[in-house]
Write the structure tokens for this entry.
Amino acid sequence: MADLKRKRGRKPKTVVDNSADAAGISSKEALDDGVLSATPVETATTNGDPQTHRRGRGRPKKGGKHEEEVDRDIAASPERRGHRFADHNGDITTVLSGDLRHGAELAAVAAAAKAAPSMDAVVKVFCVHTEPNFSLPWQRKRQYSSSSSGFIIGGRRVLTNAHSVEHHTQVKLKKRGSDTKYLATVLSIGTECDIAMLTVNDDEFWEGVSPLEFGDLPALQDAVTVVGYPIGGDTISVTSGVVSRIEILSYVHVSTELLGLQIDAAINSGNSGGPAFNDKGKCVGIAFQSLKHEDAENIGYVIPTPVIMHFIQDYEKNGAYTGFPIIGIEWQKMENPDLRLSVGMAHNQKGVRIRRVEPTAPESNVLMPSDVILSFDGVDIANDGTVPFRHGERIGFSYLVSQKYTGDDAQVKVLRKSKILEFKIKLNAHKRLIPAHIKGKPPSYYIVGGFVFSAVSVPYLRSEYGKDYEFDAPVKLLDKLLHAMAQSIDEQLVVVSQVLVADINIGYEELVNTQVIAFNGKPVKNLKSLANMVEACKEEYLKFDLDYNQTKNAKAATSDILAMHCIPSAMSDDLKT
């Protein structure tokens, strides 16, 4: 089965030498986190060596993957991947023929004409990135630059994609027809929704430009025009198409599932963050990723206005981005008649069964496994987990949850042992044992006796095992990623990421990414608790219980090992407080 790729459209530029300006830069691959690149290039690192895969046992790789696809996979289970593949093998786009096709073309031309007056609000985003080095967490990778698109909204603000300014060290904006680049400040980054908000302090930037207005969620076959600065030239580019699908889709940046638009207008590298206009010249979305597949052409994805407005209003309400809440449950469909009878559902009752409740979720106090959720905020849920969505359409009930804000209350009706109960639950952000991102912070680490301890995250796995980490990482780590739930808010999965060779740790050189279970018989809750226990230990030996039942001892040799490997500190700054 061929592999399905969704990708973001940030335009790659160049690696920036630390001792030179942008004029003296060398090429770098299109960013691993979702740009459209046709040729893979090894990523430069501080020590000059390309990153290699760590050893590890995992699931077998999928067949049919093209080596030239340099894109990050959607972090989801194989079952979810299969569903997406089935969806895109079917009615992937709206096929128009004859007069209908001619009418769509005319509508697209009209939409482009309407969007023309608003093009002055579309800007080009230049960003210098310095990504963390998860293999050597005490330093960063070599900086590189990229370009993408953005647009001006009210309140002296600019919107673009989160992945366009991820790990930024400097951001500049250039208006259409201008030769001046203005320094920008990042106000907020919405990692889950892949949106970032910027501003410019220079008053000259805001002269002679009108902010864009947002339109309503478009309907199927509505004409859209995507405007931005994609690869292939330096001037503004316009592509037109129609809305071919509206559904909950996976946002490749951190694999969250939110409402999205599928369009047949081309979204290429550099289009990321650019607006999508309707036929009235109003912005109906932000271009952010595309589908690369041998059986598909011109399939792009747009962040729709409900998600954009949620991000903006969240920032205005809280002064910072707080995220999209979830119901902390694992659920299954109730389409099987015997399963419905086993939980006491009547013939006219519909809903979804709770398989597990996350211990860190506020609703864990009221919801229980085997409860059947019948409705959310008064909207009935079908046996397949969908709810009504506009005329003749249905959508996953997670859409209702995503319309809420972190800390909001929701009314849930459940069926428990043939009795209908109603609960008021508080919604919160998702707490994962292995988080999908580190929110722009440097990775945490702790070193003792040459053993480097780190907290596992999805970016860490991607750095260690590449874009196919879901198949190349050790099985035990993958099991934690896909199925484990955090038992407390501050729980982390701590591993020995590597061993810095020294006389004190002879025999342990082969330890790589092995989970730390306990220290001197006490469970390890997170990296900070491990560091505190080791620093406070007065015993002669340090004993670490690992996943493979190996032990080691040493503390006095740590300073010599740090000096040998030119490491400034034995722990990251966040562990010192």
About this structure: The mean pLDDT is 81. Residues 40 and 67 are 8 Å apart (CA to CA). The chain is about 15% helix and 30% strand.
